[in-house]
Amino acid sequence: MNMAKPIYSLVIPIYNEEETLPELHRRLSELMERLDAETEIIMVDDGSSDQSFQIMSDISRRDKRFKIIQLSRNFGHQTAITAGMDSATGEAVIIMDADLQDPPEVALDMIARWREGYEVVYGARDEREGESVFKKATAAVFYRTLRKLTDLDIPLDVGDFRLVDRKAMDVFNTMREHSRYVRGMFSWIGFKQTGVKYKRSSRFAGSTKYPLKKMLKLAMDGVISFSTAPLRLALNAGFFIAAISFLAGTWAIFVKLFGSGVIPGWTSILVVVSFMNGVQLILIGLLGEYIGRIYEEVKGRPLYIVKASRGFPENSISEE
Ligand code: UDP
Ligand code: MG
Q1: Label partner for 2 (CA 20 to 30 A): which of 67, 159, 259, 307?
Q2: What is the chain's percent helix, strand, coil content, to nearest 5?
Q3: pLDDT tens digits, residue range 124-142?
Q4: How is the chain split into domains, by residue range?
Q5: In angstroms, what is the span from residue 82 Cα to ligand 1's centroid?
Q6: Domain 8-227+301-310 superfamily per CATH
Q7: pTM score, two decimals?
């Protein structure tokens, strides 16, 4: 079956989503009925260990609008969507999660704004359903802190659910850094941007594929890749502590010269030394974070490795 070049590309990262895939397929088919132009759906299997790839391959075999990319291992959500965006050919690329937390129907609102001339239309979470108080609170604090730390106008409570115009997409695709904080990178490129509000529903099935560890890594990538403020923090802390040590030193000399023979206690030494050690370790660690990232970038490895693909033009010979 030959297909016209798609106008819309939907990019969906998949990591162990076998429980949601059938429902996702149903909702996407419904959405495509309502779309006014040719659509392709690119699902990126981010090294799933369950049946996700088999299910996706089945879907793609039956419906050529579904294209599948299988990565050689779990590269993480941000890299998975990058792989999908690299292969998308549509005029408008829409990135959404597989678990239906980003309701596919919101794409219609995004497309309406795109038709008005906006080049990036992001989904702004109005409400979050079925997420822990902890996740909501940490997310709220994180987005607000990041905004203060960076010079970028990163919109609040915005994830990776967004529509991107071809022009902006081509620019974005040239950015090959390894520590990827995709939503920040989209703010950085500029263009005409706007948001549509939506209600983030709860996960359709299964549990989050973003445990605390991955969330912390994403937060670190966000801060370290978009801000050198932590380094400035080191400098400021250094000045502050130096000032305190100077006062303490002056006081110690004063007591020694004019005091009535007090033996300086080990307590104060212990406190000062351990405190300074702590501060030094924090600051060295902070430097390490940046240096580690420089090392990652300098290696210049590919961002991801594709193991297999289904449904792309180049697959048509090998399949069946
Ligand atoms: N995901 C991925 N690789 C990962 C973790 C997650 O591709 O290493 C996908 C996952 O399948 C889902 C999306 O990224 O489509 C968002 O993940 P999840 O819903 O688990 O995150 P949460 O909504 O809980 O933050
Ligand atoms: Mg989710």
Answers
A1: 307
A2: 50, 15, 35
A3: 988 777 778 888 888 888 8
A4: 8-227+301-310, 229-298
A5: 13
A6: Spore Coat Polysaccharide Biosynthesis Protein SpsA; Chain A (3.90.550.10)
A7: 0.80
